[in-house]
Amino acid sequence: DQQVKQNSPSLSVQEGRISILNCDYTNSMFDYFLWYKKYPAEGPTFLISISSIKDKNEDGRFTVFLNKSAKHLSLHIVPSQPGDSAVYFCAASAFDSWGKLQFGAGTQVVVTP
Amino acid sequence: DVKVTQSSRYLVKRTGEKVFLECVQDMDHENMFWYRQDPGLGLRLIYFSYDVKMKEKGDIPEGYSVSREKKERFSLILESASTNQTSMYLCASSPQGGSDEKLFFGSGTQLSVL
Fold it and tell me: What's the pLDDT tens digit per position in B52-70?
């Protein structure tokens, strides 16, 4: 059973607006969370991460929010740009399972002009 | 430019064939990983290796084996390919002690088993 869930397979957003991608997890042992971005015909690339000791991490246009009590994290992209059109994967790891990142199914983001 | 290179972009094999997927990284990373990506399931870890000749099972190792004879090379082996192994295979690497578990991925090999 998937421990990391991205329930929205796709998201369409206008250029300049905010993109919000959601991710839920079930394993309370997860203590580190990452977002990866994947373009067609390329491998995923690391985007941003957050440790469980924080509730927010920001890097330029990208911000990740973590709500541990709800076992929920979200990625905000502001403002969205056409180059942000890609598949975004949420991933999580537990301190006692090093190396075994658990990935969500991904969300396809399309940014329209 | 540092990279993880997978030897084939596309592969078509027959059921029962032995299949080798090769991966090479030039970043001197200790850790290497094999994932498969399937629609609706995301990336699932097959095997990983944290040192030469060392290997650990991931979440879905059945039907696969791996080989790591040199630090830079990590091979995934399908002993007898089956149609349910049709998938996108992604190799990744990371440095030893990388606390953030940031992985560097190759471009993937799309394997079709007929």
Answer: 988 999 999 999 999 999 9
